[in-house]
């Protein structure tokens, strides 16, 4: 059976914390396999990520912190892993991370594969490690053919499963999975799903991370202008039918980028009758 997971970012204010508490409380009713919480480059959200994960775990749910290695030293990462271990955390989402533009990186890790190798070398099999992958090609990948080769480096370094960048074109996912299988990658590749609530925010994210909003969707969404009700209705229809297609094809699960909101993910899950 497909399993689902929900991703949050660490809240910055007491109001944000309160709101997130209500969000995961609502989403917990869907019995996800796990929740995850993002981690700012260079450890900028270190405490917020850990606090969020600990609070969710305290309520009896599985929660995994993300950990990113850009602009970090091996000592920073070793300390962070030690803290996670001390709290009994056994599940990580391991990433390279992105620095804000204009800031140069000066860390000891170049790629997520090096982070995964470091985690395995220092912690053995203590952690289940999820990594990221990109059916529509990461913006910094030099040649599209390298996407699978570079992903395989993380897999060979010891990842257990992968979560994709979001996409709205299922063919990109199916083809990517076929290419991975042909390259000998056998781990579960879980589609990342971005519900649509706000077009300008989605367009900004998509431009930055290289996820394509297909032309017909972009034009429809632009055409609704400030009509939030129509954007939401259209987004729910499109994303629900995409998820239904993915589930019918036997994907191992769905990972929702919730942006700390419960309503859209819950409604998609309800419509999928899961
Ligand atoms: P990598 O796997 O290192 O890949 C980065 C780039 O380097 C790619 O273009 C890849 O093709 C290339 N590459 C990899 N290995 C090599 C090599 N040996 N030689 C040459 N090129 C190579 N960001 C955060 O800051 N915090 C988060 O919590 C976070 N969570 C995320 C969760 C998910 C599910 C996803 C999909 C993304 C997340 N991100 C997060 C964003 C992520 O950090 C960025 O996409 C980042 O640019 C790449 O991270 P990565 O781990 O995929 O890097």
Characterize the structure shown.
With 274 residues, the protein is α/β, with parallel strands linked by helices. It has a single domain, classed as Alpha-Beta Barrel (TIM Barrel), CATH 3.20.20. It contains ten helices and eight strands. The chain has helices at residues 14-28, 46-58, 74-86, 112-123, 146-157, 170-182, 199-209, 215-223, 228-248, 263-271, and strands spanning 3-8, 34-37, 63-68, 91-95, 128-133, 161-166, 189-193, 253-257. Helix 4 (112-123) packs parallel to helix 5 and helix 9 crosses helix 10. The chain is globular, with a radius of gyration of 18 Å. The termini are close together. The model has no long low-confidence stretch (mean pLDDT 96).
Please describe the structure with a list of short key phrases separated by commas or semicolons.
binds flavin-adenine dinucleotide, TIM Barrel, 274 residues, eight-stranded parallel barrel, globular, 8 strands, 10 helices, alpha/beta, 47% helix
């Amino acid at each position: 059976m497909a399993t689902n997971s929900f991703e949050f970012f660490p809240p910055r204010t007491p109001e944000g914390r309160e709101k997130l508490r209500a969000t995961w409380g609502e989403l917990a009713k869907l019995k996800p396999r796990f929740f995850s919480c993002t981690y700012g480059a260079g450890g900028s959200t270190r405490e917020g990520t850990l606090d969020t994960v600990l609070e969710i775990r305290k309520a009896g749910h599985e929660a995994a912190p993300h950990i990113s290695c850009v602009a970090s030293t091996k000592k920073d990462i070793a300390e962070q892993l030690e803290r996670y271990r001390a709290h009994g955390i056994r599940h990580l989402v391991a990433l390279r991370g992105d620095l804000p533009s204009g800031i140069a990186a000066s860390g000891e890790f170049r790629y997520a594969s090096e982070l995964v190798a470091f985690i395995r070398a220092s912690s053995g099999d203590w952690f289940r490690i999820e990594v990221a992958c990109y059916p529509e090609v990461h913006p910094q990948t030099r040649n599209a053919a390298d996407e699978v080769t570079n992903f395989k480096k993380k897999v060979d370094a010891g990842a257990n499963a992968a979560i994709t960048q979001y996409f709205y074109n299922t063919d990109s996912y199916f083809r990517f999975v076929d290419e991975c299988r042909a390259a000998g990658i056998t781990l579960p590749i879980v589609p990342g799903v971005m519900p649509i609530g706000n077009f300008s925010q989605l367009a900004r994210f998509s431009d930055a991370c290289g996820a394509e909003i297909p032309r017909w969707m972009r034009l429809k969404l632009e055409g609704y202008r400030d009509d939030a009700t129509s954007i939401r209705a259209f987004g729910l229809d499109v994303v629900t039918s995409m998820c239904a297609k993915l589930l019918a094809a036997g994907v191992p699960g769905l990972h929702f980028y919730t942006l700390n909101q419960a309503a859209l993910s819950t409604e998609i899950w309800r419509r999928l009758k899961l």
